[in-house]
Amino acid sequence: MKNLFVVLLLISYLSSCAQKNAQNPFGLKITNNYKAYQSAIAKNPNNELVDIKKAIPSIVLDVRYATKNNFMKQAMYKQARAFARKPVVEQLKQIQAALSKKGYGLKIFDGYRPYAVTLSFYEKASNKEFVANPNKGSKHNRGCAIDLTMIDLKTGKDVPMPTPYDSFEEAAASRYDKLPPEIIKNRDFLINTMQAHGFKVIYNEWWHFDFNGWQDYDLMDIPFERL
């Protein structure tokens, strides 16, 4: 009887674990319940995923994954919005103010990305080097990564950079040096500005910046329309 009880308890535990981790094949801790997300905010307001455009109206959005104009060739988001954790947005606000004094502004391509989208990217991407491995999750899934560039405030046009956004070219690397001096100057100015405000560029994408302290935030899988 005792052994039967232990077996039933084990089955119940395994079933519970399976349901908990059904959202991903790696057993990661992922917040996909809106009530759990609200509870996390109540405990720590920094957990809030803030709508970047609402917080910083002067920022330009070009959310490619809400269109077919991306490497996936299909819309991955139902809404063209960009979110990030509260401290991330506070730093972006300071960056926008600093850039505006020099005639520049930020254009956001992507921010928080639901985990389910990261899974789709990895499954379908031809070059896995340029997409996050879902077995660990992405900084985007934590609301702590931003894809962006600069615009010229006078013309409204993008400041020339080494490659287009989401390029798989070698020149997309943040230290690639076989470029015209003016392009390197623009790229490095953006990188230095971001890093001075608590971000770190990743080695193979000049446009991708991770927020220092991303480890403090959980992976998320809540769609934009719920935020």
CATH architecture: 2-Layer Sandwich
Structural class: alpha/beta
**Whole-number total of structural domains:** 1
CATH-assigned fold name: Muramoyl-pentapeptide Carboxypeptidase, domain 2
The CATH class designation is Alpha Beta
N-end to C-end Cα span: 49 Å
Low-confidence stretches: 1-22
Give the number of helices.
6
Rg, alpha carbons: 20 Å
In percent, how helical is the residue content? 25-40%
Proportion of residues in extended strands:
15-25%
Number of strands: 9
* Mean pLDDT metric: 88
The global form is globular
Instruction: Walk across the major sheet and give the strand order.
Output: 3-5-6-8-7
**Main beta sheet: strand number and arrangement?**
5 strands, mixed
Order of helices and strands: HEHEHEEHEHEHEEE
List keywords for this structure.
227 residues, 6 helices, disordered N terminus, two-stranded parallel sheet, single chain, Muramoyl-pentapeptide Carboxypeptidase, domain 2, 5-stranded mixed sheet, alpha/beta
Offer a quick outline of the entry:
With 227 residues, the chain is α/β, with parallel strands linked by helices.
